[in-house]
Amino acid sequence: GAGVSQSPSNKVTEKGKDVELRCDPISGHTALYWYRQSLGQGLEFLIYFQGNSAPDKSGLPSDRFSAERTGGSVSTLTIQRTQQEDSAVYLCATLPVFGELFFGEGSRLTVL
Amino acid sequence: SQQGEEDPQALSIQEGENATMNCSYKTSINNLQWYRQNSGRGLVHLILIRSNEREKHSGRLRVTLDTSKKSSSLLITASRAADTASYFCATDKSRISGGYNKLIFGAGTRLAVHP
What we know:
The structure holds two protein chains of two kinds.
Chain A: E1 5-7, E2 10-13, E3 19-24, E4 31-37, E5 43-50, E6 53-56, E7 65-69, E8 75-79, E9 88-95, E10 102-103, E11 107-111
Parallel strand pairs in A: 2-11
Antiparallel strand pairs in A: 1-3, 3-8, 4-5, 4-9, 5-6, 7-8, 9-10, 9-11
Chain B: E1 5-7, E2 10-14, E3 19-24, E4 31-37, E5 43-50, E6 55-58, E7 61-66, E8 71-76, E9 85-92, H1 94-97, E10 103-105, E11 109-114
Parallel strand pairs in B: 2-11
Antiparallel strand pairs in B: 1-3, 3-8, 4-5, 4-9, 6-7, 7-8, 9-10, 9-11
């Protein structure tokens, strides 16, 4: 597609359930980022992919969080055993080579 | 820790006035970028200024960068109600950190422009 696509746009889940969030990047963008934004806050870096490898996972808050990228394209962020503090908007962004990030519209996660 | 910090946290002005937002950061950077976020939406890139540049313009936007003070400002001239959004600065240390663009975002300035 023309832009970064994220799904689902909204997800409500119960505490303790696992969730998967998907990001379809702009074709040809080799770098892919996941950020988390809590209500009214800035963006918190989670993980960076270059191709299929993740040289920087330093922002993942706990081992309940994991992410993968396949074929240098689609990425999935998985949160296991969700907690209420995981509620946030999860933003995916991609980068061609250098310069500006192109963001998706985000996946809003609510953990009840 | 957060690299960029914007101030003010919130700004309320009338249409036609200028809006100035500031960003301070802590370590050396390769470039600094400003993004805009409408409520409930993703971020949109506004402008990028490299560490060897001091000022850049794009339409009604003017960005300055002072690397000696580790600060940047975003000026929106002749503001419009449609400029109401949150504005974030993001710093890129790629050359220093070793090869990739890791953008670190500040907490943002919430701008409200009243008709």
